[in-house]
Amino acid sequence: MEKRPLMRDRSATRFAGRAAWCISLAAFVFFARAWLIKGWGSPLPFWDQWDAEAIGLYAPFRNGTLRWQDLFSAHNEHHILLTRLTDLALFIAYGGWNPWAQLLINAALHATTAAVLAALFWNAMPSRRDDNAAFILGLAFLFAATCGWQNALHGFQSQVYFANLLDVIAIAGLCGTTPFRRYWWIGLVSAGLAFFSNAGGILAAVAALAVGSISIGENRRQARSWTALGLIAGVVGLALLAGGSAPQHAVFHARSVTDFLAVLAHCLAWPWVNNGLFFPVMQLPLVCLMLTRWRQKIVLTPMERCALALGLFGFLQAAAIAYSRGAALPEFRPLSRYQDPLLLGVVGQLAAIVTLFSSRARFIRMAGLIWCAVAMAGLIILTETNFTLHLPFKRAQDRANLAIVRTYAATHNPAAFSSDPNFSGPHPNPRVVQHVIDDPLLRSTLPREIFAPASSDATQLPWLIRHSAALTAASGLILLCVIGNSLRQKSTRSADESTDFVDEHG
Predict the structure, then answer these.
(1) Most CB atoms closer than 10 Å: which of 21, 217, 313, 334?
(2) What is the mean pLDDT of the chain?
(3) Is the pLDDT of residue 501 over 50?
(4) CA–CA separation, 326 and 331 (whole Å)
(5) How many domains, in total, are found in the chain?
(6) Residue 39 falls inside a structural domain
(7) Is residue 180 part of a domain?
(8) Containing domain of residue 200, as a range?
(9) Is 221 inside a domain boundary?
(10) How many whole angstroms separate alpha carbon 435 and alpha carbon 437?
(11) What is the pTM of this model?
């Protein structure tokens, strides 16, 4: 009679511990991204924002001509419903265009994805080791890094973060739970919604379909699983039928099998995007895990199915990038904005590493440590390259473009756009920017920084961005304290459980 309250207390303690880990991780990732925004962000809209947002969304909304079907219409290859709804909500809330709020939304979505991944793999980690701590720290390093700086610093790219979040939820529901239960349905709905954020979002459903087929092969008497696979296949089929097209982007497609394979190797080698020879190393953990389970004839656990699905998702994303952008990438390297989806594939590899750590084989554990060292080295090199090369160029580009736009806003002289030919400009077509600034209805909604003097560096950063450095340090310290406290409680709990067993059984 006394065991049940004790068990309930322990269950509540574990839930509180898991929540503390996830919240502290999300806070650290969010403030780290806010710090990146503070140092390298800009209030100036960039490229697609001038036509897709200002002309395609805000103008019809202000004119009263915006229709529901406009929200569902394709933007190039993508249906960006969720991005449009978010941008429109921010536009209404702030009474105009607020790029800083858009960037913070991107950071929040990115941090939420990290927290969902932490919650997904929490209960499935082998309990004999401090695997949760290792996995959480790995997520913190991966998600706080600057690999996707283009997405982090461009408000329009919320579509990528919506897709990543929904893809993780889809994989968790479709691969980590029994078909037709509540979380499975949530996963199926998330897989469909991911398509309405980014075209690549549907690849999570494809990965879940492949993993589900493997599970059926393990147990052919599960007739319900065939129905579940049919529903997932239906979602994929509907997405393919409703997919957008961009004939103008055909020139970017891979010109040959050689180009396709070269880009594929560089993508699969992430974070070693500059050296495709690392791709076998970065893909090795899941291969080893699957071979181990196949040789042992062991059915995959829900965690292992989710890890496999994330790995397959990363592979499919790499293949999609290699095909659709194979002719447009310098030296076959994926651009920063393509790297956030690849990150999820690496998370699957990390989960496989943690699972393999439970093995008593010294060779496997040593191989896992080597993989972690190689991945960390690649992440450090990529981060250093971003901070020393790409981000400084981006800052110079933003300052030059902001000066151009400010000059035109003050003079309405088109010659302002030819003042600095070394940069691509705020939009490939200067007339688009001119149209937005010249339109009285849109001009009143533009960020106020645009109408400052051309030589002004004054920006009005939100409070969270202004104090992001201190908040990042504080949240990182809290995360370390939570990890340390959980590890201490784990040792104490193990001792208490041993005492309870002795008291009960003598």
Answers:
(1) 313
(2) 84
(3) no
(4) 10
(5) 1
(6) yes
(7) yes
(8) 3-391
(9) yes
(10) 6
(11) 0.90
- In 10 A of CB 275, how many CB atoms? 13
Max intra-chain CA distance, the chain: 90
Helix (H) or strand (E) holding 229: helix 223-242
Cβ atoms 407, 419 nearer than 8 A: yes
The two tokens of residue 371 are 């993989």
By CB atoms closer than 10 A (0-12, 13-18, 19+), residue 439 is middle
Spatial separation of the C-alpha atoms in residues 95 and 447, rounded to whole Å: 11
Type of residue numbered 343: L
Q: Give the C-alpha separation, 342 to 95, whole Å.
A: 36
CA 370-204-14 angle, to 5 degrees, is: 65
Q: Do residues 326 and 338 touch, judged by C-beta distance below 8 A?
A: no
* Sequence-ordered list of residues with C-beta below 8 angstroms from that of 269, at least 6 positions apart, any chain: 275, 276, 277, 278, 279, 281, 282, 378
Mean pLDDT, residues 305-326: 92
SS3 74: strand
Tell me how far apart the alpha carbons of residues 268 and 177 are, in angstroms, rounded to a whole number.
28
196-226: per-residue pLDDT in tens? Answer: 988 888 999 999 999 988 877 555 556 778 8
- Distance (Å, whole) CA 457 – CA 114: 34
CA angle centred on 464, ends 86 and 18, rounded to 5°: 80
